[in-house]
Write a structure and sequence with these properties.
By secondary structure, this protein is of the alpha+beta class. The protein folds into two domains: 9-119 and 220-234, Thiolase/Chalcone synthase (Peroxisomal Thiolase, Chain A, domain 1, 3-Layer(aba) Sandwich); 144-215 and 241-396, Thiolase/Chalcone synthase (Peroxisomal Thiolase, Chain A, domain 1). It is built from 14 helices and 13 strands. The chain has helices at 27-42, 59-62, 68-74, 90-103, 145-159, 164-182, 196-200, 253-256, 266-279, 284-287, 298-307, 316-322, 338-342, 346-362; strands spanning 9-16, 51-55, 81-84, 109-116, 129-132, 138-143, 204-206, 209-210, 220-228, 240-249, 290-292, 375-384, 387-396. Strands 3-2-4-9-1-10-13-12-11 form a nine-stranded mixed beta sheet, sandwiched between helices. The longest helix is centred in the middle third of the chain and has 19 residues, at 164-182. It is globular and about 60 Å long.
Length: 397
């Protein structure tokens, strides 16, 4: 019988750059920036790290091919170094490599680093991509992120009887909440409060998603050092423990079969089920104190609230309207502003989410600090709503 990783691995150090249009820094500078903070936070020396995982989704754009890039940049001392990529969940995939290696007993201390440098390319969004389906058949040549998630939004509105105005208002409140939180996050890219009215009246990108319903593109890096839980307090008095870290990949059956309703993301729901089982969580709505989720679009956050069982199916609108997910609400979501305010440097986002949970659980989140959180959750996802890589990581004191 498998035993999982619950309470076997601890975070003893983390670092995170300021995200944004980092024209002041090259990709190597960003990696060094996050790693320097991480190493100092852990209070160890570079020689203590026994293996490293490097998450970079577009290395040919960001820094150069292969894991050797990380070894070169950080001058790692002849240790195993592995480069991973898993669409927009690349950052969490790098962290999973380090965590599972420690949990297995193969190493005592491991490093995970994620980075992406996209702004220099001039991208206004993630590059367009086709979807290759059965036996390599090209099924769509012009898939875009806003277009895919706009379809989810319209299907959700239809299924649960929301008028266009009601649906837009729900999405606007989600984005306004995140922007308000982002003002309190010194490392966020976008740090300006936006009103519900401004969001409702913003130019449409793909109906019903407007300008403020879509996260931006940023440069950034984040890093984590993990070790065996039973040795963590040798390094610091307040380590953070992994309760679970699960990743699932959809086979694409959602699109190929007729059982998917198009109003939720099945892969995220399934990842949540696995993570809750491993962490021993029976009632996520009551037991999870806070979360950072993959809010690439405002509708994505709305659906994730239901997929992760924070809200009943079809009822997230009421929780959003009541302020449940606000910084002062019963279950704060995106306390640092999320992807909405940090943007999405692909390889870094998953680790950046964990960075916020780490600081909150330690009581070191400054102006946005929550009152005595016990359990934090991150959800990082990539691919397509119907063919997704989805991760759920659960952390505790």
């Amino acid at each position: 019988m498998t035993q999982g990783i619950r309470d076997k691995v601890a975070i003893i150090g983390m670092g995170c750059t300021k995200f944004g249009e980092r024209f002041d820094a090259g990709p190597q500078d960003l990696v060094v920036e996050s790693f320097t903070e991480c190493l100092a936070d852990a209070g160890i020396e570079k020689k203590d790290i026994k293996a490293a995982w490097w998450g970079c989704c577009m290395p040919d754009i960001s820094v150069g091919l292969g894991a050797i890039s990380l070894a070169n940049i950080l001058k790692l001392p002849y240790i195993p170094c592995t480069r991973v990529e898993n669409f927009c969940a690349t950052g969490t995939e790098a962290l999973r490599g380090a965590v599972y290696a420690v949990a297995s007993g193969a190493y005592d201390i491991c490093l995970a680093v994620g980075m992406e440098k996209l702004k220099d390319t001039g991208y206004g969004g993630l590059p367009q991509s086709g979807f290759v389906g059965y036996k390599g058949t090209q099924m769509s040549a012009n898939i875009t992120g806003p277009g895919m998630f706009a379809l989810l939004a319209n299907k959700y509105f239809s299924k649960y009887g929301l008028s266009p105005q009601e649906g837009k208002m729900m999405l606007a409140r989600i984005s306004a909440k995140s922007h308000k939180n982002g003002v309190l996050s010194p490392k966020a890219h976008l740090r300006k409060e936006v009103t519900v009215e401004q969001i409702m009246n913003a130019p449409i990108v793909a109906w019903p998603l407007g300008l403020f319903d879509c996260c931006g593109v940023s440069d950034g890096s984040a890093a984590a050092i993990v070790c065996r839980a039973n040795m963590a307090k040798k390094f610091r008095p307040d380590p953070v423990l992994f309760k679970s870290l699960q990743v699932v990949a959809s086979s694409g059956e959602e699109m190929l079969c007729n059982t998917w309703d198009g109003a939720h993301i099945e892969g995220i729901y399934r990842a949540g089920l696995l993570a809750y089982e491993e962490a021993g969580i029976k009632n996520p709505r009551e037991e999870v104190s806070m979360a950072e989720v993959h809010d690439c679009f405002s509708i994505t956050e709305a659906l994730i609230m239901e997929d992760l069982q924070f809200s009943p199916r079809g009822r997230v609108k009421e929780d959003v309207a009541s302020g449940r997910f606000n910084l002062d609400g019963a279950q704060p979501i995106e306390p640092d502003g999320g992807l909405k305010c940090f943007g999405h440097p692909i390889g870094a986002s998953g680790i950046r989410m964990v960075y916020e949970m780490y600081k909150q659980l330690q009581g070191k989140a400054e102006k946005r600090q929550l009152k005595n959180p016990q359990i934090g959750l991150t959800n990082n996802a990539g691919g397509f709503p119907w063919n997704i890589i989805a991760s759920v990581c659960i952390l505790g004191k």
